[in-house]
Amino acid sequence: MIRDPHQAVVAIVLPGKPAVLGRMGWSAFILALVAVCAVAPALNLLVPADSIFHMSDYAVALVGKIMCYAICALAMDLIWGYTGILSLGHGLFFALGGYAMGMYLMRQIGRDGNYKSDLPDFMVFLDWKQLPWHWSFSDSFAATLFLIVAVPGIVAFAFGYFAFRSRIKGVYFSIITQAMTFAAMLLFFRNETGFGGNNGFTDFKRILGVPIATPSMRMTLFVMTGLALLGFFLFARWLVSAKFGRVLQAIRDAESRVMFSGYSPIGYKLTIWTLSAIMCGVAGALYVPQVGIINPSEMSPANSIEIAIWAAVGGRATLIGPIVGAFLVNGAKSWLTVAAPEFWLYFLGALFIAVTLFLPDGIVGLVKRFKRGAK
User: Fold this and answer.
1) Which residues on neighbouring strands pair with residue 293, listed in sequence order?
2) Is residue 337 included in any domain, yes or no?
3) How far apart are CA 249 and CA 87, in angstroms?
4) Distance between CA 180 and CA 178 in Å, rounded?
5) Contacts of 331 (CB under 8 A, 6+ apart)
6) How many domains does the chain have?
7) What residues form DSSP beta bridges with 270?
8) Residue 153 reports pLDDT greater than 60
9) What residues contact 310, with CB distance under 8 A and at least 6 apart?
């Protein structure tokens, strides 16, 4: 409090910490939670297949896959939308999480493979006699969960530490991340690395001893993916509304001023970069058992560019926008690759150009402008 010249007491009210979600936001969150945990399982497992309300196994797999993509888009928004760091290599972290899960699933096949061996089929085909050292803990589910988080996190931390300390930013950082994922893709294509070469891992049969192909397991994976997406969204909302998130946005808008204010941008950038990579790794681990395959093509630069497109189409620095973008673009992809496969890439390119020129704030930004205009 301060006093004016007439000795009157004037109270200074500081702005309070913003809520993670408003009333409408919490209502929408609860509805999404009910849809994932109750409505979708009921429509798939309880409603007869000939009913119009039945959710087919194909729809379960498709929506589950898109929810994995939405987690990646959310991770991209944290580093690009809120921190101003455009990564064109996040497909690498997605694939690393997927490979960690795929190694466990390959060990779960046991002697049910074509060669009736304890080794994965591709190792028997290549005349390998024993597992390589990096497969040592692949038969442990607990170790796999640790590796799903640790491997993308360590790789991202090591890369980010040297990149951010060298003050690499802007288009140069984007190009280096693209080169990183391309180099990793070429490495994983080699048979001698022990990751299945260009075929990767497939023909999964069990997880925790339970057959993957059963409807109940498919729905369990679906629900786990939905919970992961909602959990990461809530975590991201909390993060960006806290002081940490405000510093990230200040780094995005004027990094030099942040330094002059006494903050070190390197620690903040490295933290959000590593968290973003871990989110992609978890998404990749949930993706693999639902899709049934993981190979080096998941590391292709084109996949990483698509993640950025999802965030741009939905609307950067909104959190909900990239999720909307992931569902919109991948839903259109699923339909167009069947109805008009030769036009899909043209549609994707035209969509990105249109958003860049006419909707710089994405779909969510357009909705917000309409709301402001209606008031």
Assistant:
1) 202
2) no
3) 17
4) 5
5) 66
6) 1
7) none
8) yes
9) 69, 70, 72, 73, 76, 322, 325, 326, 329, 330
For residue 305, give both structure tokens: 């560019």
Between vectors from CA 222 to CA 219 and to CA 226, what angle results, nearest 5°?
A: 140
Q: How far apart are the first and last CA of the chain?
A: 36
For the entire predicted model, the pTM comes to 0.93
pLDDT in the model for residue 9: 52
Decide if 164 is inside a domain.
Answer: yes
Task: Quote the mean pLDDT of the chain.
Answer: 91
How many alpha carbons lie under 13 Å from residue 238 in its C-beta half-sphere? 7
Dihedral of alpha carbons 276, 281, 285, 288, sign:
positive
**By residue range, what is the domain housing residue 103?**
36-47+54-300
Any long-range contacts for 32-40 (C-beta under 8 Å, 24+ apart)? 32/226, 32/230, 33/227, 33/230, 36/222, 36/223, 36/226, 36/227, 36/230, 37/223, 37/226, 37/227, 40/219, 40/222, 40/223, 40/226
Residue type, 12: I
Question: How far is the C-alpha of 214 from the C-alpha of 6, rounded, in Å?
Answer: 78
For residue 25, being part of any structural domain is answered with: no
CA distance linking residue 2 with residue 11, whole number of Å: 7
Tell me the per-residue pLDDT of 118-148, one tens digit each, with 9 for 90 and over: 899 999 998 998 999 999 999 999 999 999 9
Exposed/middle/buried for residue 37 (C-beta within 10 Å: 0-12, 13-18, 19+): middle
Evaluate whether residue 140 is within a structural domain. Answer: yes
3-class state of residue 207 by DSSP: strand
Residue 13, pLDDT score:
54
